[in-house]
Amino acid sequence: MMLAEKPKRLIKNHRELSVIFFIVFLSLFGFGLVVPVLPFLALKYNATSFTLGALMATYSLFQFIGSPILGRLSDIYGRRPILAISLFGSFIGYILIAFSHSLSTIFLSRIIDGITGGNISVAQAYIADITYGKNRTKAMGLVGAAFALGFVLGPAIGGLLGHFSIIYPFLAGAFLSIIAIFIVYKYLPEPKKRVTSQNNAFFTKEAWLSVLKNRWLLVILLTNSIVTLAFSELEATVPLFAKDTVNWGAIHLGIFFAAMGIILALTQAFLLRRLVDKYDELMLAVVSGIVLSLSFILLSFSKHHSVIYLAGLLLAVSFGTFTTVLQGLISKLGDQDKQGTVLGVSQGLSSLARVIGPILGGYLYGIYYTLPFLTSGMIILGVVTVFLTINWARHNGWTNFKL
Known about the structure:
Elements: H1 14-34, H2 38-43, H3 49-77, H4 79-98, H5 103-116, H6 119-130, H7 134-164, H8 168-187, H9 205-213, H10 215-246, H11 250-278, H12 281-300, H13 305-333, H14 339-367, H15 371-395
Helix pairs in contact: 1-6, 1-7, 1-8, 3-4, 3-5, 3-6, 3-14, 4-5, 4-6, 4-8, 6-7, 6-14, 7-11, 7-13, 10-13, 10-14, 10-15, 11-13, 12-13, 12-15
């Protein structure tokens, strides 16, 4: 295995980081464009409520399958070509939907887009190639910020375009995918510092089992997916909760989620950089996890608009901090020549969590309306206990956990 010399400063990589930020933003903006109109397009073909749920879950399910594959391929063939391929897959998916004439075509488009939609893990692997130490966690925050910002602005613009024609958001998504491909080839060089492995075979036990054999890496991967599952319960049940408790409509909910998305983006782009400079990352995980857990519990007792907004603010800040720190830890604990594979597995597990979370949240809400939030709070407290144990064992010399 060839190891490259570590760059002394992150500043040399500002251009590459800016391009990665823009590519992730365009990808998620394009994805967000179709969210408001996809159900209405499916209803044209007499889709049932179950079919709509299955359609929304299809993308995440196939992203669970595709993310580790794309990540591994980027370890073998390079980040740039795999980024371009994934973006082209999104382009095909958008075009298929725009000119679809049946539900089966819409499902096919979501399958293609899901399998090739793992460009987040490839983007994170690119960042891992050009950053080291705490700078890596800061840079991972930029990906999270681009993700949040694109997902906030996308549905707003998609709803506006869908007012004129239901296919306009899909055509816009296809156009943005082509723009992103152009940017990849024009402005994003293959990382010079990328570590290459002597064994570039795709189907090797060594490549895939190395992720599972790393005890601490496996722990962080699982905790990251559990946190994602807990948060995705909220996304599915907050609209019902807000409607039943304070009689919110679509406008209030739109403002609430937009505010959360903007705060999440600001946290990951700016606040996190200062926190990572000042504090140990494991302790940041503990503190942000405690705040996240208490935020869920606060939300479950909310009976007034202001309390719901306060809970949303705390949720956005703590979730943004917690998950970005976890992504930084995952990257540092993974082998340098398998960053794409490791981060692909991470994104795949998160995608699976986003399939399970809304289903679990809806089921719990049917039992009792505060149960999803209380359950999520307890789950996060369990995760915090894991990190407290690791931190205690590390300081007492009982573990070889190293950052």
